[in-house]
Design a protein that fits this description.
4 helices, 5 strands, 46% helix, 5-stranded mixed beta sheet, alpha+beta
């Protein structure tokens, strides 16, 4: 405990950075509590380095608490709205758009397979597509190609 109190500014900087790293890297920025506490600790460390607040444990803890609260009040809404603006569009992989000629008939009740890139893919379609028709992959899931007939 002596080392922590003798090197208070450095210790708070390290603790603050560790909290920020845990929030971003481990928790994926899903909770903001550690982020706010990390910001409060880093800002308190800066204030201690600059000599703005006294180099005592009580003033450092009080400052960290107050700055954590201020960071939470100021940053809560912007961070929450940033989380809400997530694209719901599915990521399109390299398999989408692949075209080939059907060897077997595909329908909602029939799901033959197609070998591509060393994998046996089950073919799924909402429409009946006859054998010999050129088709395109419109969605790829694990082991499943959703296909449609080419015009």
């Amino acid at each position: 405990m002596n080392f922590f109190t003798e090197n208070l500014a450095q210790s708070l900087l390290v603790v603050g950075l560790i909290l920020l790293v845990i929030e971003v890297a481990v928790l994926g920025f899903t909770t903001f509590f550690l982020f706010f506490a990390g910001v409060g600790a880093v800002l308190t460390s800066v204030l201690l380095y600059m000599g703005i607040i006294p180099d005592t444990l009580l003033s450092a803890l009080l400052s960290t608490g107050v700055l954590t609260l201020i960071a939470a009040l100021v940053l809560w809404r912007p961070l929450k709205s940033m989380q809400a603006n997530v694209s719901v569009k599915k990521a399109q992989g390299d398999l989408v758009g692949h075209q080939f000629i059907l060897k077997d008939k595909v329908s909602p009740t029939e799901s033959p397979t197609h070998s591509y890139s060393g994998v046996q893919w089950h073919l799924v379609s909402d429409d009946v597509i006859e054998a010999g028709t050129r088709v395109e992959v419109i969605e790829a899931q694990v082991g499943i190609f959703h296909i449609r007939a080419m015009d």
